Amino acid sequence: MWCVHLIFLSAFFLVSMTSESFDAMEGDALVIKCPPPSSYVRVTWYHTETKKIIPAEEEGSRTFSLKRLLWFLPTSREDSGNYTCVVHYSNNITKEFNVSVQVHPYKQGICFPSQIRYPNDTGRGKIICPTFDNYKNATIVQWYKDCKPLQGERYFKRDKYIFINNPGKEDDGYYTCQFIYTHNGNAFNVSATRIFVSNAKYSLLPPQILFPKQNDVTEVDLGAALSLKCQARLGIKKQPIAVVTWDVNNSPVKKLDFSRFHEETLSFEGHDHEYYRETTLHITEIKKEDLQANFTCVAVNEMGNTKAKVTLQLKAQLDHPRVLMIIGFLVLLIIIAVSVVLYQSFRVDIVLLYREIFQPYSVKDDGKIYDAYVIYPKSHTSEANFVGYFVYHILPDVLENECGYKLCIYGRDICPGEDTASAIEKRIQKSRRLIIILTHQSINCEDLAYDQHIALYNALIQNDTKVILLEMEIIGTYEKLQESLRYIIKQQGTIKWKEPPTGHQQSSNSKFWKHVRYHMPLTHKTSYSANAG
Ligand SMILES: *[C@@H]1O[C@H](CO)[C@@H](O)[C@H](O)[C@H]1NC(C)=O
Ligand SMILES: *[C@@H]1O[C@H](CO)[C@@H](O)[C@H](O)[C@H]1NC(C)=O
Ligand SMILES: *[C@@H]1O[C@H](CO)[C@@H](O)[C@H](O)[C@H]1NC(C)=O
Ligand SMILES: *[C@@H]1O[C@H](CO)[C@@H](O)[C@H](O)[C@H]1NC(C)=O
Ligand SMILES: *[C@@H]1O[C@H](CO)[C@@H](O)[C@H](O)[C@H]1NC(C)=O
Ligand SMILES: *[C@@H]1O[C@H](CO)[C@@H](O)[C@H](O)[C@H]1NC(C)=O
Ligand SMILES: *[C@@H]1O[C@H](CO)[C@@H](O)[C@H](O)[C@H]1NC(C)=O
């Protein structure tokens, strides 16, 4: 049974034997490999015709053999011919293979042998440099198409391939790879040529990961689920090799036995038939160890692969409320600031409006009779005429008739004949406010002094009567005023009269009167709202 099997095997090898051919330029290096790839004990090489064994390398030898390889360093024209390699397997079985070598004389302007006997590459645009693997430590220096150096963006060079982007008929031709091979310090040229015939159903592009970006960091919560998406462009039209997958610490997700991870892939064509694949890595629950892990998306097509690494990072959970708190605090500050500014600007209107709306109907009886006692400089000069007009007409018009206040004005409510001192004192004590009219007269007029002294005494010492200062004329510097007046001015300022002095109707809604009303007490037994406006 065993013998029959062996005979069958031998017969099979004899029948299937085909002679391989190698072409080389004169003076280049040539390394040939005996075809069978499987395990063997020993290989011997000899000239087919002369049966002369080709020995192992000795110093200075040009042609020598080593295991499956036959070396010509460099080739010479007389190397053309047939060679046989004898492969010794275990169990005393040997097999022979014939190879044919053709060394072409170097000719100016010819970069490849006229006969090309490497198999054609067809279709997709990938052209492999023939025999390159036989040469250890070789470097491709140049690719040629029909003896012209290849250059342009359509050609992607990899170690032993080139790729033509979207190949068409015009790409058909002879492609030569030229490389340098170094042996024992000697450099040799090697070139190998094959034919490319386009037949493209699809074409390759270097794989490109659109997202994630390399070294992206994704924020996560422990225990939460996460989906990591990776999308890659792999070529034009559907690719025979198209892989987009996730590795966790360099192990493919499929090989991990954690049920926490699983992948989901879809593929689609974009514009110009660009072919994409998108793979989502679903993690059902983020664990602590994932924060140290590298999640790598790998995209692979015939041309090669590319990767993008993503790591995970905890969401800054502590900072979150802190940031919110700070923002809230800032907003609060801004609101307060705006309110303060608004209140400062509209304080008077707000207070007056408030009074108008929420005016308490029963104001507590404080035992006073007058809302304000009016102190003003008495004079007979023409300048003072307006002050007299103001005190006797305008002031009562607005505050009494319009606003419903009750004033006490010396000369109107106190007759000159009364016991002036005690009358004034009594009246001021029965008044809720002191209205002091300031003019230049206030500085000079002796006449005012008595009134003011009592009034200011009450206001400052007993402090139960508020003072309202009406500055009817621009006084400028207050230096010359009495010290007590200066003190009040410093405390609360004055209300400045800026209206045209005569002529038109006074309105309780002008700025001046609003300020005065603001400083006045609440109206008692009011008929104010009916009269206002
Ligand atoms: C090599 O072998 C082929 C047949 O396999 C033969 O036609 C050819 O003449 C041989 N070449 C030489 C140089 O003997
Ligand atoms: C192989 O052949 C040699 C002689 O040719 C013989 O001595 C040896 O026993 C053989 N080995 C086997 C495994 O058949
Ligand atoms: C190799 O070539 C020689 C001479 O042409 C021939 O006798 C022999 O059968 C060939 N061997 C194989 C395995 O083809
Ligand atoms: C290789 O391509 C050339 C040129 O197109 C063609 O003539 C030849 O028949 C092809 N060889 C094979 C084995 O396909
Ligand atoms: C390959 O190249 C490396 C350095 O580039 C050198 O160290 C090594 O000896 C070379 N191997 C051979 C077989 O020439
Ligand atoms: C290799 O070829 C280039 C031209 O293609 C030539 O200039 C150079 O001398 C050659 N090197 C060897 C070692 O033959
Ligand atoms: C993740 O990658 C970085 C460098 O890219 C490496 O230093 C680190 O050891 C890797 N971590 C793991 C867990 O593989």
From TrEMBL:
SUPFAM superfamilies attached to this UniProt entry: Immunoglobulin, Toll/Interleukin receptor TIR domain
Subcellular location: Cell membrane; Membrane; Secreted
Stretches assigned to the Ig-like domain: 10-100, 113-193, 207-313
Signal peptide extent: 1-18
Gene Ontology MF, one: interleukin-1 receptor activity
GO CC list: extracellular region; plasma membrane
Keywords noted in UniProt: Cell membrane, Disulfide bond, Glycoprotein, Hydrolase, Immunoglobulin domain, Membrane, NAD, Receptor, Repeat, Secreted, Signal, Transmembrane, Transmembrane helix
Domain of life: Eukaryota
Xref: InterPro entries: Ig-like_dom, Ig-like_dom_sf, Ig-like_fold, Ig_sub, Ig_sub2, IL-1_rcpt_fam, IL-1_rcpt_I/II-typ, Immunoglobulin_dom
Pfam family, one: Ig_3
Main subcellular location: membrane
Transmembrane segments: 323-343
Bilayer topology term: Single-pass type I membrane protein
Domain TIR: 368-520
Similarity comment text for this entry: Belongs to the interleukin-1 receptor family.
Protein name: Interleukin 1 receptor like 1
The organism's taxonomic lineage, starting at the top: Eukaryota, Metazoa, Chordata, Craniata, Vertebrata
